[in-house]
Amino acid sequence: RDALTQPVRVLLPDGTTQSVRAYTAWWLRDHPVLDGRRPAGLRSAGGDPLLAGLYDAVDATGFDDAQVLRALGVRTSVAALL
User: Fold this and answer.
1) What are residue 17's DSSP bridge partners?
2) How is the chain split into domains, by residue range?
3) Where does the chain show beta strands of DSSP type E?
4) What is the pLDDT of residues 69-78, one digit of tens each?
């Protein structure tokens, strides 16, 4: 779970650090890993009904953790899009 949800600190060329999205979450959100589809273009079947016409639903059984779904790019609410 932490490999998906916790930001990673990277060292920049000027010696400063910056928090960025975890590589694992970045990779998974752009590859077809949920029902053969990319998570970033899907919405949680139990998510906000306002997303119904915008994104295809995915059965997220076993992925009931909203933070993990968000890290994967699955849309869970309109507020999360903003």
Assistant:
1) 11
2) 2-81
3) 8-11, 17-20, 42-44, 56-58
4) 888 888 988 8
